[in-house]
Records
---
Amino acid sequence: MSEGDKALKVALLGCGSVGSQVVRLLTEQAGDLAARVGARVELVGVAVRRLEAQREVEVPADLLTTDAAGLVRGDFAGPVDLVIEVIGGIEPARSLILAALESGASVVTANKALLAEDGSTLFEAAEKAGRDLYYEAAVAGAIPILRPLRESLAGDTVTRVLGIVNGTTNFILDQMDTTGAGFADALEEAQELGYAEADPTADVEGFDAAAKAAILASLAFHTRVTAADVHREGISEVTAADVQSAREMGAVVKLLAICDLRDGAVSARVHPAMIPRAHPLASVRGAFNAVFVESEAAGELMFYGPGAGGAPTASAVLGDLVTVARNRLAETRGAGESSYADRAVLPMGETLTRYHVSIDVDDRPGVLAAVATAFAEQGVSIQTVRQEGREDDAHLVVVSHRATDSALAATVAHLRTMEIVRDVTSVMRVEGGDE
Amino acid sequence: MSEGDKALKVALLGCGSVGSQVVRLLTEQAGDLAARVGARVELVGVAVRRLEAQREVEVPADLLTTDAAGLVRGDFAGPVDLVIEVIGGIEPARSLILAALESGASVVTANKALLAEDGSTLFEAAEKAGRDLYYEAAVAGAIPILRPLRESLAGDTVTRVLGIVNGTTNFILDQMDTTGAGFADALEEAQELGYAEADPTADVEGFDAAAKAAILASLAFHTRVTAADVHREGISEVTAADVQSAREMGAVVKLLAICDLRDGAVSARVHPAMIPRAHPLASVRGAFNAVFVESEAAGELMFYGPGAGGAPTASAVLGDLVTVARNRLAETRGAGESSYADRAVLPMGETLTRYHVSIDVDDRPGVLAAVATAFAEQGVSIQTVRQEGREDDAHLVVVSHRATDSALAATVAHLRTMEIVRDVTSVMRVEGGDE
């Protein structure tokens, strides 16, 4: 099965929950991996911060080192063919990946933060070195997204990507939808169950999702989008009333990463939005992730699975490892990056959205006309208005047609200044519908 | 963008609804394709049955020929680099693909029937010729399945694949579930709407799904499974009462393609089954397809999208074309087949299933005990029994735990012979649950 003594030398950088599962799979699947690659895959070293740390999987002591740079340089077992980076964060991950590529190794990384902040530097280095840089595990964990977007849809034009790419926030919103709980209670439960960190900021404020949105937009539209290009709003302001309001219109609130292609320009944004319950993304429950792709010829596709976790992420890393190892043996490269399109990034104000606006108003004649006029003055067309009278005041729920985000924001700002408007109690975007 | 005058010559075999969309995409996407491949992709000929036929897309007359063999041989524009086969059926498709590979061309095919009947011959020919044979469009239309199973999960072990891989039957069953209609009425509606053929046999009797099950099992388990290995039951016997019964237990009836790996052996089967409404496959509506994959490390993944249609299928064909074209330029091959596992195929009787059995019985003491004994005698454990008394008879609904299909079949056969059993009114397998 293996071709003589040929073996590919693999260095693993990082041995946390993902890294230790990578070690486990490399060991347990050694036979299958050799068959699929066409050569033995040999783990020659594991760079860790502390030699003595507690690990999910036992790693032979002679493989462990705290000298990641030395391991990449080949000080330990000679030149390394493949480097797996699962340290995360910007540095030292970036320097190590660049050193690996320069020394002629192919690289597999799960590092979404680094790719979203400075992917260009990495991809250029890979291009220059003529080596592969694969990163399936960086977007939506184990869900295969990289090859579908980069290869399967290479003859098609992707126009939109809608993703539920953060399991923590999906768990919280799902709890709020199922139990009627408020954000704080749902977050607490997520923390108790291990779905949310003690400091949940990166998840609930959308930073994690924004990094993934940047990577998804880059992949889908063959251009460069960084995390700084992504408009970002988290879910900490989402109330039980918003979730209830969504329910009343047959919708559910999700934190979406939305990447659009319009007139040759792209936009990428992360914010909570209402989507119809009949939309495939609405059925994504708990901590699961999904990426919904719209393309001109293929139509609507969805990819669903676990977005995080040691073993699922390690599965994605190993899939990449097999591909780059095969390419290495064949002395070729994979489809690689295709950032030829170099598209403009639209500011949030120019993106097209729909709004769901809840307004407390005085209950007197002419109120509805005045509110409708406020929308019309900004050129925003109203799809539905629902009025609920309550003693001496009334409550209006307005759902707009698609308009620019800036026109909608201006409308809401104007509403807040109107005498008859007591309060704009909630504003939320609506996605996944027709108009 | 294109590398000088370098162009890859493409021959298209077949120009029906998929072929004409391939022509359209090759033309409209020419610039993007050249950027993604690294060379111009030039359509040099289109083999058709009749030159004068009506086509969805206009094809330049000088590209059309009725001499498919001559086109593949290079009689028209010299040697061909890439051959796309969208004729379908066994012959002449097989001979043309073999001739293409022998002459040094790489091949992209959408031909599920041929792959399921005689994939080995094609894969061996591709191996011998050192050329690519890609077939994403042959399974679940536009849904990317090939690369996820063959590459993304190459470092993992797939244990089970559950697929809704036939849009016609899913449409019919969805109608029955939504409207309460019987099979005949739902079929008629599907025919009126163009979702079912005038002769619906290939779809409703599960032949189409069985071919796809064979391909999925081969891909997922790195072995060879042919259509003849697949146990096949269609949906023509599914009644409105079955669908109602499923609803009562919180389930929905779907035609499933099920591929299992157990103790190193595989099984593949197609039959209607009840699955819980909370299962991701239950939310696959209308004519959509989905493939649900269970693997050891990644856990549960699902791939969803349109399973048929000219443009979606053409999108899958073009994605393959870009990959094989890139490989052609790099003088390498893709991951290709990996049928190294050579696994035994379990007969249907040995596969593990659960049964939902509806029984009309005499309403007298001891009936439940007698029925329970019939299950126990075959070693089949009962999960739930629901009894509904009706005048002088009673109705029992039994759901079993997992047991071999032969033990369950023997139980049902025995029930039918029992004096107290008036009729076994329905037997259906249950999938997607825990036990």
Note: Chain B touches chain A through 60 residues (CB under 8 Å).
---
Amino acid sequence: MNAEIIAVGSELLLGQIVNTNARFISQQLAEAGIDVYFHTVVGDNPARLKAAIKIAEERANIIIFTGGLGPTKDDLTKETIAKHLGKQLVMDDTALAGIELYFHRTNRIMTENNRKQALIIEGSHVLPNNHGMAPGMLLKKGSRIYILLPGPPKEMEPMFSQYGIKALSAEVGLKEQIVSRVLRFFGIGEAALETEIIDLIDAQSNPTIAPLAGDGEVTLRLTAKHTDEAVGASMLDEVEEKIRQRVGQYIYGYDSSSLLEELTKLLKEKKLTITAAESLTGGMFQQEITSISGASSVFKGGVVCYANEIKQLMLQVKPETLEVHGAVSEQCANELAENAARIFGTDIGISFTGVAGPDELEGKSVGTVYIGIAMKGRPTMVEEIILGGTRAANRTRAVKFGCYFLIKTIRESQNA
Amino acid sequence: MNAEIIAVGSELLLGQIVNTNARFISQQLAEAGIDVYFHTVVGDNPARLKAAIKIAEERANIIIFTGGLGPTKDDLTKETIAKHLGKQLVMDDTALAGIELYFHRTNRIMTENNRKQALIIEGSHVLPNNHGMAPGMLLKKGSRIYILLPGPPKEMEPMFSQYGIKALSAEVGLKEQIVSRVLRFFGIGEAALETEIIDLIDAQSNPTIAPLAGDGEVTLRLTAKHTDEAVGASMLDEVEEKIRQRVGQYIYGYDSSSLLEELTKLLKEKKLTITAAESLTGGMFQQEITSISGASSVFKGGVVCYANEIKQLMLQVKPETLEVHGAVSEQCANELAENAARIFGTDIGISFTGVAGPDELEGKSVGTVYIGIAMKGRPTMVEEIILGGTRAANRTRAVKFGCYFLIKTIRESQNA
């Protein structure tokens, strides 16, 4: 049992867009245990598409098409496949009603060529499109399965993950459900994490444990297969518990969450307000906090204190501190955090000072970072971290560390 | 004359990475006027790779391979192609010396399998790898051209654009050089720009003029073909001049420049300092200014004044202004910009206030933005803009508009 993914669209062959659809579908198939041997990209040309279908039929049992289901005259995927398989196109009333509703909702006039999108290949199982108009299809002929999906990723991805992969699993007799969960780590590297749990990774085949690193964070993807989804989920609970016993202190969230989202949720929950004094990060922390709608309940404002004179003028850092210890120092981070919280009248003040690079500063090497956290009712703490990336990476990593220390500090203060 | 691009690598079929190489190569081929009819992706499997080569030979004259040139046992592209074409692999001394130098430079021990990377298919033209070890190759057999490129984009992209496309053009007898230039616009939409110059676009075939929109900016790509590169460049000058006569006021830069880079360059050149008072944008402008190394000569710091109380406390906005006109107003933007420049002692102060969304504010609708610019020796100006995007897009667009207004203001003040 193996699959080939055929993307249809001249814009891919002209290099105007990247074929992210093939990647997305391949990931989902890999998780389901279905091999993919080939990806093909072909233009909006019926003869060449037909040739590609014939080649795919020689080497795959499952052929998945993306693109070419739209209303324009370039969109010829289903027409070409229907003709090739000797099948008719028939109007699907549900799909048509969906398209009419879409136009009604967006107050636009539906033109005749949009009706074309509701045509499906006779005998196919319809995959609903919740984010656009053209429905997807799954059909069988002989021992082969054909799946047609729309081209825009925002339509294709939810369609395939919600309906496509299930319909395909049922069709090929995969009785098992796939249940997966992502654990998100911060403050531990990929290699260190793997070392801590390598015996679990090696011993597990169901659920599997797959580490993935990126952007300074590490995640573990846990994937269980079972005929009963609920049993699959409890298998995940069990392996998660084992992992938590070893490295639970580095886990900050699940799935697609982010450090920033966890922090904002926590601040709102505990009704805490925060301000920031940013030197190194130049406003990045505040920019991120305010990127989340409703931030005003926890954040009122802060200062970007890039130059030393601004640290003194706006945040009352003592001249002696800057003279004796320098701006990149524990002492400076401490004053910045405490003074910011006092001046802005917030529960928490966070400060970022350090050397982003490319040049060293005050004799401190690139990547040296001090993050101060002043929180009502707790002694102010300053964390020193040493980063080894580019200027941009060091700034981004510093903000992530700041969020991580804040989450830890707030959680600890609640448990105390 | 048409090309097929074959990417080799199981990681592509597992969905671990996206095939950006096919896009890059396709773009370059499209510019050179060479058609691409198919992309193929195949795993690290000699039998399936060989089958893919045979299919490609049936339908393309130029076959371009990416990936599988590395030192590990999975890397089998050149071995498979050599065997298929009945050719030997021979050691290329220049490539070997390059690999030895690479290890010497990075202070690492060169293992035996790295020598394998210096093997080339006999009779092939070597494409140097300036960013890695494995050299690329171009070879001919019969009427077909085979090009082998490494998989990592940071090696493949410069190799193909510097050496590959030229070698290919020479081989297929394209005597013309391609010269291209990108003009960057801001403050005019794609449709409006096209309307202004549609007659030029339609009349030109060499150079061609191609508009592209993205991220709130519009670019025009000018591409000339001529046997003499210098003549090609002067053809571009000529068409650029025609465009400038119509819409020159919206052009802010060339090629891969950005509004932020142009602004920073201008501030440094004119020795101007700047500060910011950011409500709407929450620190994004300052974060971007400080993302450029050496920002400290033009930027000392600023304030994020998200809440009204901070606008009063830190930036001395009058209570009456907030009561009568509100925070999202021309008057507030004016005071914020002027007071920020005064408090921080800078030549320029910029302010951002507005409604990012998703909810309206003070009865002002989402997307309403005021940007204030106070500059020594000029009356303070406030620009009102109305944006129609999401919260994130409105914030990003506002920062871009801020940079654009600053560039215009500074240029005008110099010309005055």
Note: Chain A touches chain B through 69 residues (CB under 8 Å).
